[in-house]
Amino acid sequence: MGYQALYRVWRPQAFEDVIGQEHVTKTLQNALLHQKISHAYLFSGPRGTGKTSAAKILAKAVNCEHAPVQEPCNECASCRGITDGSISDVLEIDAASNNGVEEIRDIRDKVKYAPSSVKYKVYIIDEVHMLSTGAFNALLKTLEEPPAHVIFILATTEPHKIPLTIISRCQRFDFKRITPQDIVGRMERILTETGISYDQNALLVIARAAEGGMRDALSLLDQSISFGSDNITLEDALTVTGAVSQSFLTKIVSAIYKRETAEALNQLQELLALGKDPIRFVEDMILYFRDMLLFQAAPELEDSMERVYIDQDFKELAENISSDQLHFWIDQWNRSIQEMKWSSHPRIFLEVLLVKLCQSEPESSKSSVTDDTIQKLMNKINQLETQLNTIRENGVAINKDSAPAKEKAKVTTNRSFKVPVGRVNDILKRATKPDLLKIKSNWGGMLESLKKSQAALLNDAEPVAASNDAFVLKFKYEIHCQMAMNNQEFISGLKGTLQQVTGNLYDIVGIPEESWHKIRQEFVSTQKQDQPESQETNEETEDPLIFKARELFGDELLEIKD
Predict the structure, then answer these.
(1) Which domains does the chain have, with CATH numbers?
(2) Displacement of CA 225 from its chain's centroid (Å)
(3) Average pLDDT estimate for 268-297
């Protein structure tokens, strides 16, 4: 190929090039120097943090002709052969596409053969969490007691998916996200050696957009170089990453603070016209307010800023805006981002939010007391003291006409969701355990058939009572219950999918968890009152454990076996 991406050209070839993982590289270097090499390693951590690169460097170091060494020389035949992939004794296997039992059995059969050209056979299994259960079982014994000439290095981004029996047989190293400062230092070195000019602030924008991954940062840097014709500017970096420039953020925050609605909406319209993502814009605003709070609390911690650069405009805003106001704004922006993720028109939420913030009274003015207010209070106090002295001298005079009429405050309650108590009780009267088990046994298959957006509403929901034609669906949170039950398209899709997997067409009644406990308890109490006295007598004489279970779960969910 005539051109290679930066992250391939500048892939680390020694432990000193693995940025931000000193706790891993130092341990491996000491183990190499003292020849305390383990038979199996597990490298886990986020993407682009150097796991596979560190594995290849370790493979070169143990097979280097000058071993024992802390770093591979990258000059001997073994190091060069491993780097270009010509030595077959070092195998890099992609577990995502080789995740079957047969592939692992093939490895298990070949490990007993001695290496042909180097000292150690090294198997690097990338994305090892993708292996099937049978493949893990086939790997267990070989991983625990491999031949002396074999080293296994497993790499994964999701260690929680790996069986504990595998993890316990390895030395585990957790790679962490790389800090923006370390990413910027690495990019500066690359650009200096390639002779490309750059803006320091542009590298900071790229580093923060990479979210701790060196590979992501170099990919964005590659795009910026192509976009800017060998000169990386701040605007180029903002365009490539989709971030919003600080000048726009400062103008919008200033407009909100000064309650200039038209100016705030004009700035928003200009941003969206540039193709900026509304959700990314909200995230930038939250980080902007976060950095302002941090600057107010500890101005010397400039390196901890996530989004802003300390300029004069930022300092002036930080001096004028109170911390209470910032807390209020962060809460409002955070709520809006949750709503925007569920909306197909995020721009409307942004415009409404800006209008709301511009028209709301600043928190600082609510708590501040002006001289005029103090003067009015003093006049009122003097007037009350004069009236009190008059009453003491002349007695109390009651004037019915002057008595202020007490008006009852109109209390309006806006209930977000009305629980259908009657329908729930009707289902409870006809509910049976087999009907409920039939729905629960098919619930998982039904969720897989739904769209992801629809299945997300049912994450914390479960059927709790069912008859032959209807069931009660309990939601953990009232807001989820309201969103689901008010969405006719969602209800129709759920009914149709459930009919396909069960064969029955059910009526669905949604209820929040708190309301379900109350209604169910009342239903059980009512059923007990309707029972004949002889049955109540039997309940009093029955086993206390059974009586308590009947009281907690009801007869429809209780099955007693001798």
Answers:
(1) 6-174 (3.40.50.300), 180-241 (1.10.8.60), 246-361 (1.20.272.10), 421-530 (3.30.300.180)
(2) 31
(3) 85
